[in-house]
Amino acid sequence: MKPKHPSQAGTFESSDVIVLIEPLEIGSGRKIEIESIVKLQYGDNLKNVVNEMLDQYVLTDIHIILKDKGALEPVVKARLETAILRSIDRQNQ
Amino acid sequence: MLYIPGNNPAMLQQGGVYGADSLLLDLEDAVALNQKDAARILLRNLMQSIDFYDAEVCVRINHLSTPFGLADLEAIVPLQPHAIRYPKTESAEELMALIQIIERIEDEHNLPHDQMEVHAMIETALGVQNVFSIAGCSPRVGALTIGGQDLTADMNIVYTPDGAGIDFARKRIVMAAKAWKIDVIDTVFPDINDEEGLIKETEYAKKIGFTGKAVINPRQIDVIHEVYTPTDEEIRKAYKIVKEFLVNREAGIGVFAIDGKMIDAPVVARAQYILDLANVTVEI
Amino acid sequence: MKNALGREIPEYIEGIGKLEPFEGAWAKLSKGWMDEPTIPAPNKATLPHQSKLCDSLQEAIEKANPKNGMTITFHHHLRDGDIILVMAMNILHDMGIRDITLAASSLNDCHDPILPFIQDKTITKIWSSGIRGKLGRAISRGAMDLPVIIHSHGGRVRAIHTGRIQPDIAIIAASAADCEGNATGSHGKSAFGSIGYAVIDARYAKHVIVVTDNLVPYPCIPLSITQNFIDTVVVVDSIGDTSKIASGTTRITNSPMDLRIAKLAADAIEYSGYFEQGFSFQVGAGGASLAVAKFIREKMKKQQIKGSFMLGGVTSYCVDMLEEGLFETIFDVQSFDAAVSKSLFNNRRHIEIPAALYANPFNCGCMTNKLDIVVLGALEVDVDFNVNVITGSEGNIRGASGGHSDTASGANLTVVVCPSFRGRIPIIKNSVHTIVTPGESVHVIVTERGICVNPLYKHLEENFRKAGLKVVDIHDLKKEVDGITGISRKLKFTDKIVGLVEYRDGTIIDVIYELEEK
Asked: Domain B2-228 adopts which CATH fold?
């Protein structure tokens, strides 16, 4: 699958995360950037969650940025899913 | 009953700790139109992972006439919260249509039809006039609630702290709920800094028959519990009545007197209700 | 060697000396005496009618004859508004004095500007009850060769009596002083209230400088600091930023989470068995801790309970309770807002006390020993009820020991209040990163998810359950919270020790290692 256009989900509030998505040329691979106030403790976890979610939607060529203010894992997953669905125009299904 | 905006992770993840009897996780008015999808997904995830302890979890979905209502149901019904709350309910037919969709989704997920309740929110003049048939349209209707702000808007009047404009609606909704023996929850008190006003309004709601009150800030919970909790004096009196009743029943006596006042079945029932609220059991 | 809590403590550190491992909260006290002798305070003499006034802080410091390797002390009653410490260190640096031991009763964010003096070895050793800001960050990353020594407020007095800290120069900022050095913090434009922590510095430093921005006609009363210990007096334009020293009154938090925790804590106190006529009480100034006072105040009024004294760091909220007659007396070692200074100055039932009387473990009974109930905060707690108030979740030194372990050791009921997780970081650990207060002196930990009772104090659990309060086993709570937050990755440290945490009796309760991640 390929994102149709850039998208965004989440807020800058504490315990939330902003997810930004940009489509990349086919063959570019995944470019993942993570900023987090708990990067020391949860940086690896965040990266795993992103990759799992991208695998689930079979997204390979994508630029994804997380700005995390200490969101719990189910919150991170929700924001990722929202951003992905928005990028493929499926948010109201 | 504590309102929590459906797109606010910080508040949702702590929803269960404030000691509210029930939580209203809101996908409707508390969520901006362009964030409905985000809130729906967030709520779905958090409802599966967060322990809300003893609180009953209710979800207010968007009206089916919006582009979001059906998607909300598809996402939330499979999680079987305590109740789905339907906003701006105006007729029994409309609520039956909602329940049909809910049951279609439940069938798809092999879920029973008798677990999750439906709560009707009455917040238009038409809803108030139809409230009796709304409350009785299905055994799944477990509670009625009144939405004060929307109702006054619908009536083209200004919402005033004395509640004058919605007084008739309050009492009519309470009466419909009592007729069908279901719960009835009063509207929110919007000024979180006015504790005295909150106490006054809650006392009034209790007096006219509401079984609970909605709050928009956790700080309001203890105040409402305080009003609804029977006083020691009330509990003592109720205990005496129920105990005397049980003793007299053993002896085959139905009606008796305490301190010169006649005690009959309704008085005993009311006393028992107070003891239930206070978690007190009577032994003889 | 391992101490009684299983922490590995070095026996000796070059430049600091022999270390004694922590044996237990009351192990050393139970002897009834202190093995280390008290060193004599310096003897001084002056002729009658000499002037102590200096034209500048520079002149006063020059008169004090500063030397390489000396120890200089400051007090932290000006909190984050203090400008005197940085001013003095700048002067010493410019004079080329090196290898200084800085013994400030606490260090705040406002002291960040001395960081370069650590890097250039002007300052080579630090004693303090707390370190924050950039200073804490840098020290946690190995900025100093010698570990800093974190003491409690009571422990600092003991360390000065025993000569572990030997102040050469003490600089005492005061909001009012006279030409002889009688000084106070209770009035003047920069009023900060009690000056209780500085009293021991005045008594023991070889040279004592009083700095004020408000020279009053002789005599300056109250005699919080007395002239018989003061060498010189300096008048400056300002001793600090008054908006940060103390302003207005302290408000109770609006945060629903803090209020929830406070409500549960107040309920626990009510049913603990210690909430009774004549009880004594101490609460912190922050968030949930202070909010407990709000609920206790309501309960006292409702049940017509009158307390004996309030102790410690004092907020306007305590003053209100004194004025309402809910307590007989306030003993004030540190004041948190402007309203407190006024009360301290005007109300004879509001009494300024020195740190020694407040919390020094080695005397015939400090006031913390007389406490019934204390409510304290925490950065981390663990399943053994140990409390960390010094290092943050990211491993940085960023807090203060303060009176935490002093009051916990003294109180009949020590209540620690904290959220079960902050942001995504769990606060309940298997083992806290740094122990400041030992678990045996903590009775209950209250989070928004219920009350955890230390198994050493079983009787409390029974009281709480009977009252229908939500009691949770701390191990179960930890599991629950880990389930919410996910397990965090362990931080990495080198084997270099950057901090020693001294228990109030002088033993070492824990060490802090250098963070590997810079």
From this structure: TIM Barrel (3.20.20)
